[in-house]
Model the fold of this input.
Amino acid sequence: MEPKTIKKIGVLTSGGDSPGMNAAIRAAVRAGFYYNLEMYGIYRGYEGLIQNDIKKLDSRYITHVLERGGTFLKSARSAEFRTPEGRSKAYENIKAHGIDALVVIGGDGSLTGAHLFFQEYGIPSIGLPGTIDNDLSGTDSTIGFDTACNTAIEAIDKIRDTATSHDRLFFVEVMGRDAGFIAINAGIGSAAAAILIPEKKMPIDHLVDKLKIRSKAKKSSNIVIVAEGGKSGGAGEIAEKVKKFLPSYDIKVTILGHLQRGGAPSSFDRLLASKLGVAAVEGLLQGKYDVMAGLINNKVVYTPIKKAIIDDKSVDEEDFRIAKILST
Ligand code: F6P
Done:
């Protein structure tokens, strides 16, 4: 497609919020101003696009947002945008504001929406990987993943204190939808006894054997990290199963939940979001449409959205091997 003249860009955040989304919005808006563009904030993701919740942004909107978690544009999961009628309403609103292009910050569902919208209406769009799950191809890390891992590790360290004081076995459930990236990173980073991820099956008897070996070695605390999307169930279910084999163990369960999505972004996420925010606007000006901007080996890479959302990124085998060595 020939590059279109772009004067007005709309920015939205969609799906589960992630730390660093604000930094990405700010970078895209600042870059837009640098290139003399008009920048529009679309509130509550695609929902706001459908309901015409759109505001022209000036620099006041992006003052002191870089360091804040969440997204000041707010976020939503829009069922209506999944329908052709919803997307048609969204298109009418875009036309009414004269918006020429979109920057969509979100996870795979949000980027799928951008791809569909481009296919149907030809609205130039660039996606940025904004999710704590790290489950998008075309980038080494998604915006918010590093912060979420830091938050999980900080929480697990605290659990470790009480687990050690009482010689307890804890099952800690972390987020990640159906991917084990947070689990494997947080597990390695917090000296977990075992890490259960959706990508690798670990039969209960293997886990029980592992815990028995650790018990013989007189380990004073055991923390098992369970990724939420595992086929054998969440931390509660796994704990119940293990309890049957190890009735003498004092077992506790903690689900970290949404606290992993909050908090100020780490320096890594601030930098990643800032680089990608600029890359989004520059990419659009260069005629790169229907792509996701990501960072691979510290270089900006534009990957077709269709490719980025295909679920072919999986936990590094090497990380899994290291986790195994370190948890014996
Ligand atoms: O995709 C981000 C994420 O936090 C997942 O890790 C989690 O499974 C899901 O969103 C939770 O969604 P919600 O906030 O709608 O409960």
User: Anything to note?
Assistant: The first strand starts at residue 8 and ends at 13. Residues 16, 107, 131-133, 175-177, 228, 261 surround 6-O-phosphono-beta-D-fructofuranose (CB under 6 Å). The chain has eleven helices and eleven strands.
